Structures are given as C-alpha cells and as structure tokens.
C-alpha cells in the first residue's frame, strides 16, 4: 500500500512538472488578480477572489512574497522580473536571453501611481524546499504608500494585510539608501499592525509571531561603500542599525523585535532604457534593455527568495500556513475593517505634532504650578487663593485650546486629564497653604509664650522675688488684717 501512495505522489509531481514545463502554456496563464480594492476611505478584501485562488491549496503549504513601499518605486517592474525568473525554471543564464519582459503585473513609467489595493498572481509557482516539500509560491504587489490618493490609515491597513498573509515582506526603498524617515515610518506601520493583530485576537500572546521575515530592498544603490547584492546589503544593514539617539535606537529595537529575521539587499539602477520608457512602451521592453548589473542583482535576490534552502513558508504556532489558514487571517482583518475596529494611525508629521503637544501640556501644568507658587510662602486667604487658581486654570485651558492637535475624542480625553492634574495640583497647594496657617499660628503662640515668660520675670523684680500670684495673696491678707 505504501508503494502505491509513493507512486501516486511521484506521478502527481511529474504531472505538475510537465504542466509548468509546457511552453507557452503556463506563461500565458499566470497573471495578476486584484484581491484588495480601495472602497472609499478604507480597503476592502475581495475574499471570494482570494478564495478561488487559494482553494486548490487549502491543505498545502503556501508562501507569499509581498512587496510594499513608496509609490512609483518600481515594485511591479521588479515582480515581473521575479516572475520571469520563475517561469524560466530558474536557469543560470536567464538574464542573457533576448526575451520580452513578461507583464504579469501591470506597470508603467512616469509619476502617476498604477497599482491600486493589492494584486497577487492568480496561480502559484510550485517549488520544493530543502525538505523536499512542495510549496505553492505566490507573488503579491501592493499599492504604493503615500500617494496623493491614500491616507496614512489606508497605507497602514495595506501594510497590515500584507505582513499578515505574506511569508516574506520586502520593503522597497527607491531612494538608494535606508533613510531614517524610512525606519521611523516602518516603525509606525509595525506599531499599527501589532495593534491590529492584538485587536483581532485578544488572546494573542505575541502578535509579532504572525509576522514574516523582513527584507529591506534598496533600489538605485550607487554608493561605493558596499557591493550590490545580499552580502553587501547585510553589511550595509549592520551599519544602518547603529544609532546614537535614544529615539532612533528605540525604532531599531522595535523592528528587530517585530520581525523574526531582518535582511537587506542592494540593487543598482536598472538603466536609462527602463527609466525613459513611455507608458505605452513598457510592453516592448526586453531583458537586454535592462542593465546587466541590475539583472545580476535580481538574480541574486531571486536565489535568496526561491532557492531550496532559502524558501520561507509562513509559520503560525510552529506550523506551516496553508491556503486555508491564510484565508482565515485575511477574513479576520476584513471583518475588523468593516466593523471599524482598526486602530487610528497618523503620518510622521502628525505624530511629531502630537508628541510636541504632549510636551506642551506638561509645560502648561508646570507654568500653572509656578504661577500659583509665585504668591509667596505666607498664608493666603482661601478666597483669594481660589480666585487666583481660577485665573491660572483658565489660562492653562486657553493655551490647550490654542495648541490642540488631537482628534475630537482624544482631545476631550486629554483635556479632562489636564483638568484633573491641575485640580490635583491645586489641592496640594491648598494643603500647603493650610499647613502655612498652622505654622504661623504656632509661631504666634510661641511668641505669646515667650512674652508671658518675660512678663513674669519682670513682675518678679517688682515683687521682691515673689511670683505675681504670691504678691496678690499677700495683698489680700493685708487687706483682711486692716479690716480687723
């Protein structure tokens, strides 16, 4: 019986191989399909479309390679090259062929964003890992972050869905460097994704266990310090992850803790023929039109992603994710989006404004306390103190309103918190004022006691050394004798 199942498995693998080896068959059938669209101000997961793509692989390990990053960064162009590599069965000389570049993912040159939502290959590339297991590998393209049509919240939701179902998350950076703003922005996206996952599953002990390895893909790299490719990329990443400022150290720590592995790959410029392509000319682009250095870098990247010892399958609770599990993850996030259960997210500029306003709130409180204490160390009539408090309190609240950058609900919450803290400070000031009153009363009593002692001593001098009480007694006795 075991021989029978072994024979069936062998025949199935052979059939799949013949299917993928049949040119031009599969090449023409693989295309991208939309699984997330932008519905007004929030993304909508097309669960039916995603279900149709994954249904044949619901019990099979699935790997999704996703690319996320700035709009007009060449994400779709890169994915097409990776598709070309996989369609040609990963040959050593694929970059030297004079073939036209496949167009699985639509792309065009220029300044306008092209991809909307999230697209994924409608069929997987069947690859084997180092354990001999067959893995269904999909490639996924995401809408460019921060184009003029997307808000920070929409960008974060796209990122959250991407890292939730992907096996490897590529962070595409077209500026030729990993800038500090790139890390800070990634930190914001990661924080939002963590909160989203925790809201989705309140029992989740560690949301980052759902997240895939991260790869910084630095495009248009031209610096002489490091060689292009994965080796130079890791050396460059090691330098980038060093920081002096506490804020910068913190975001690097969160990135390291948020992803199970962090890598970096450096890609050079693809060449003028690619950059100067008109929108209608992209279908005519051939591999020979692309600079060889760039293609060599893509070949190195493809090996890092798809070779048997590098192929990564998403893990959940220590088990490889199947198509069925990925559908459940996508469906859970879609429900959160529909029910408005996703957390609020802000741009870096907005976050900086909020941080600065938090600092100002602390300054308002300090100014209130300093002004109240300026009345001196003497006891103040409670009515006068209350009037002065009202004036300082109103000034602080006026300053709050003038500088407020919060959303309405958060503004009300923080305003009430400031009132509570000001009133708490006022209560302490009143206590200190009452303590001053007691101290001043004690001082008066001490002075009265001293004055009394001086009085008795002076009277003793006049009474021939007798106490005042004795003098009075003697006088009374003398008066009695005089009467008798």
Walk me through this protein's architecture:
By secondary structure, the protein is α/β, with parallel strands linked by helices. It contains 15 helices and eleven strands. It has helices spanning 2-21, 25-29, 47-54, 75-87, 152-165, 180-200, 230-240, 246-258, 272-275, 292-306, 323-338, 348-373, 382-403, 408-462, 468-483, and strands at 32-39, 42-45, 62-69, 118-121, 125-128, 134-142, 168-173, 214-218, 262-266, 315-316, 319-320. Strands 1, 2, 3, 4, 5, 6, 7, 8 and 9 form a nine-stranded mixed beta sheet that branches. A two-stranded antiparallel ribbon has the order 10-11. A hairpin with a 2-residue loop joins strand 1 and strand 2. Helix 5 (152-165) packs across helix 6 and helix 12 (348-373) runs parallel beside helix 14. The chain is elongated and about 145 Å long. Mean pLDDT is 79; it is low at 1-9, 14-27 and 202-208.
């Amino acid at each position: 019986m075991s021989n029978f199942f072994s024979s069936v498995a062998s025949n199935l693998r052979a059939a799949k191989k013949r299917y993928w080896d049949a040119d031009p068959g599969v090449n023409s059938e693989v295309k991208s399909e939309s699984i997330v669209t932008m519905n007004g101000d929030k993304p909508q997961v097309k669960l039916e479309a995603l279900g149709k793509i994954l249904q044949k692989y619901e019990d099979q390990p699935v790997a999704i390679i996703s690319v996320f990053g700035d709009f007009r960064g060449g994400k779709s162009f890169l994915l097409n090259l990776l598709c070309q590599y996989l369609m040609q069965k990963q040959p050593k000389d694929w970059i030297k062929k004079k073939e036209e570049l496949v167009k699985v993912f639509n792309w065009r040159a220029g300044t306008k964003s092209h991809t909307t939502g999230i697209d994924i290959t409608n069929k997987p590339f069947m690859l084997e890992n180092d354990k001999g297991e067959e893995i269904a590998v999909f490639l996924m393209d995401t809408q460019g972050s921060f184009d003029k049509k997307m808000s920070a919240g929409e960008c974060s939701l796209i990122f959250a869905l991407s890292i939730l179902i992907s096996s490897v998350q590529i962070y595409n950076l077209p500026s030729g460097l990993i800038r500090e703003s790139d890390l800070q922005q990634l930190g914001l996206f990661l924080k939002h994704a963590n909160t989203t996952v925790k809201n989705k599953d309140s029992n989740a002990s560690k949301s980052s266990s759902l997240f895939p390895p991260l790869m910084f893909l630095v495009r248009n790299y031209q610096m002489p310090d490091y060689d292009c490719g994965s080796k130079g990329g890791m050396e460059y990443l090691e330098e980038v992850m060093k920081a002096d400022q506490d804020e910068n150290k913190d975001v690097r720590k969160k990135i390291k803790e948020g992803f199970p592995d962090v890598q970096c790959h450096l890609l050079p410029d693809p060449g003028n023929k690619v950059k100067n392509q008109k929108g209608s000319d992209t279908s005519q682009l051939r591999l020979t039109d692309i600079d060889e250095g760039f293609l060599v870098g893509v070949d190195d990247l493809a090996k890092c992603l798809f070779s048997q010892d590098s192929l990564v399958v998403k893990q959940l609770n220590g088990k490889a994710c199947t198509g069925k599990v990925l559908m459940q993850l996508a469906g859970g996030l879609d429900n959160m989006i529909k029910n408005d259960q996703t957390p609020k997210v802000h741009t870096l500029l907005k976050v900086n404004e909020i941080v600065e306003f938090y600092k100002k709130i602390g300054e308002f409180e300090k100014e209130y306390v300093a002004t109240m204490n300026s009345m001196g160390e003497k006891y103040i009539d409670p009515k006068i103190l209350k009037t002065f408090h009202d004036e300082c309190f109103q000034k602080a609240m006026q300053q709050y309103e003038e500088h407020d950058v919060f959303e309405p609900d958060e503004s009300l919450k923080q305003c009430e918190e400031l009132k509570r803290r000001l009133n708490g400070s006022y209560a302490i000031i009143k206590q200190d004022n009452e303590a001053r009153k007691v101290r001043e009363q004690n001082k008066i009593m001490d002075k009265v006691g001293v004055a009394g002692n001086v009085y008795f001593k002076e009277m003793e001098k006049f009474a021939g050394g007798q106490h005042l009480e004795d003098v009075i007694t003697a006088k009374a006795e003398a008066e009695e004798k005089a009467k008798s």
